[in-house]
User: Fold these one by one.
Assistant:
Number 1:
Amino acid sequence: MTSTAHIDSARQTVHVSLEDRAYDILVERGVLDRAGDEIARHVVANGSPLGRTAAILVNPKIDRLLGDRLRASLVSAGFHALTVAVTPGETYKNLATVSRIYDQLYADAVDRRTIVIALGGGVIGDVAGFVAASYQRGLDFVQIPTTIIAQVDSSVGGKVGVNFRSAKNLVGAFHQPRLVLIDPNTLKSLPMRQRRSGLAEIIKHGIIADADMYAGVASEIDGILSLKSAYLDYAVANSCRIKARVVESDERDHGPRATLNFGHTIGHALEAITRYRVYTHGEAIAIGMVSASLIAEEMGVCDNALTESIANVLRRAGFEVKPKPDLDIDEIIALTSLDKKSVSGSAKFVLVPRIGHATYGNSVPAEIVRAALKRQSAI
Ligand SMILES: NC(=O)c1ccc[n+]([C@@H]2O[C@H](COP(=O)([O-])OP(=O)(O)OC[C@H]3O[C@@H](n4cnc5c(N)ncnc54)[C@H](O)[C@@H]3O)[C@@H](O)[C@H]2O)c1
């Protein structure tokens, strides 16, 4: 699918088939204003929200931008809307924040029928999901993601949790949402750097699973970043579809779910080495995808044309495609073996033999990673 002719800019529904944990992802401009009705229809067994509390977990900035619209739609659908303010930022994605949220839910005496709603980016989604997974042993959970990263990645698949000491997402759970509502119009206030960061994950989904979307995104980069192209809506829904199919095959991340980590082994190392202050997640992953392709070349898995193609698409999307020159290659390599996904200290890489296909669990000797990173520093 390389043309925009296939795009349906009206509602797109992606169903996630997970037995009794199945749910729908609705992608539609304007769906935020009908959130209350959609939640009543999809989450409340008899469709009657009478007496049910919807607890909106949101940071103050997103609350100012979108909170009133969500509250109005919940109240008009019959919910009691409760707002829980959460301090923004990755540094507050921790157990202290979770504990403060428990305090408010306790003070408001919410019951087990309460629906927890995450309104915001991936941080709020992960924190709110963990609260929903744990408070009173599990509450219904709805995601209303408002960054591209959250819309195409973190809101789908049920991984929720917080950071612990210096480890990202070390404490968490699998807790699938009951519904995901994606309104691409909510991205209008999202700064360009954050939009671009999310685009890296869309490109990643194309590389690992969908050559047509990879080509389509490559030809629609400007329209996606400006949010004007209906291809954005298609790419968001299709990314959810790709992630959903992977999650359906491996909900608990014992096998193929690892393919979603393409570019993340080096990407995570770059984020860690720069203490999360230099690169956005997408920027680090963009560089990591080029590293992974060069590694695949060195392993004889793909040819240079593939690396060139990936690097060119990423450059056109505005990404750097090699690590900053002051970063030490050996330090990057040392960090890859500490990656959460490494097994017994040996880094595992996702490799792409051709666009649309990915293999996971590939052990790569450090010399090969070093050779690839050296080549990358010269591209
Ligand atoms: N659970 C998963 O499967 C999964 C997958 C990928 C990422 N994540 C997690 O997601 C987090 C990153 O998510 P993120 O990139 O969305 O970061 P984020 O949630 O910190 O959001 C980035 C910034 O954008 C702001 N923002 C959000 N929506 C906005 C809007 N519509 N307009 C203006 N500003 C807006 C936020 O307030 C924040 O300052 C990380 O903690 C990562 O670990 C989780």
Number 2:
Amino acid sequence: MRKAALVLLAATAAVLLAVVLRGPSPQAGTASSHREAPLISDDPTADNTDLYAFRSPDKPNMLTIISNVIPGEDPAAGPNYFTFSPTARYNIYIDRNGDGKQDITYRFKFNRKPGVAFLGNTVQSYTVTKIARGKSQVVARASTPPNNIGPRTLKTLYKTTDYRSLAAKAVTSMKGGGLVFAGQRDDPFFGDIGAIFDFVAIRRGTGNAGGGKDFLADYAVHAMAIQIPIAQVDTKSHAIGIWTSVDRRNVTVGGRVNRGWTQVSRLGNPLVNEVIIPTGLKDLWNRVTPAQEKQFAKYYRTPILAGVINQLYKLGVPTRNRDDLVAVLLTGIPKVTFTGKTLADELRINLSVPVTEASKFSRLGVLGGDNQGWPNGRRLGDDVIDIAEQAVGGFLKGKKLPLGDGVNFNDVQRLNTFPYVADPPDGFANAKGAQKP
Ligand SMILES: [Ca+2]
Ligand SMILES: [Ca+2]
Ligand SMILES: [Ca+2]
């Protein structure tokens, strides 16, 4: 029996049942936070999929933060291709004193113009506003590259077929230091979602030794990436917390004008809303802030997932008093990412931990003896499904189960420089569909 490997997949699948019942479409990606709650699955352009934060491998004095939205972009899905929503605002928040409230905000707002002929226009101008100490300043005005629709579109509209050069030109300096990029990217999340949905089938072995199928290969997301000097965000303990969210403008109903914005999606650590928060509370969780996390603490302490694992596979995973998970996800790892007693789901990172040499990189991050990876920040190569499965399995309580989904790395190589996330797959050449003779 390939029991051990299956357990968390099973549990994940159970939690994802809501999505199954909605009827998965070909773009029903369920990565770390893709389509994880009922309401947000109706609003993909406002759906945060993944958040990354790491010291930059080529510039260790710079912190890179990447916030991705729009799950499962098929690069061939025209003529109105995927874009950032012009009626949303996208936020990256940084908490420097552990109170669950932002001290620095980077806010993105995008425009969208009509396209040529019957095509949508995927080049979007945008602003980045930095809000800190009560002061709000536009730190960048920039444009996304076009989506990677295909070589004829690129040649006709942008006079080149070299997508790399178009994307490289879209990297823009920010006022006060640092860089920004926004636009379509390869989805850097990887996982065997197809197996999970097929009632937790596993394709080979135990799941921890390869053999899975990367459901998200050849799909894209829209990414917002910033690279900022660590000196601007560092603290005495060197531990800070980061999260991302999307706000929608309030709608006017029955003639009553309701100005302002409502947060519709939020993301700190991967898989929290997907796996920890019960389905009935997922929409609420998306609307509140990390400072209001305490109301959900019991779901971290007695995770549904652990109970499901035991019911299905009788592995004796600890189901109660999971203060290990509370620490990792809500207050930080003692002496590493600890930010204080306030319970808040934030992606915490200790900015003094050096960049791991390539030869010592472990996809299992801290659990694999590599102190730079998730849950100390999150790098593009961190295998968060395997890490989460093993952590919920009780790794930090000494119960080391070889759990995993059999997909150990992304389908494409990351870039060596900012924004690091690889170029998106090409809509014309992409491998989906069936080529006819
Ligand atoms: Ca704060
Ligand atoms: Ca990918
Ligand atoms: Ca994996």
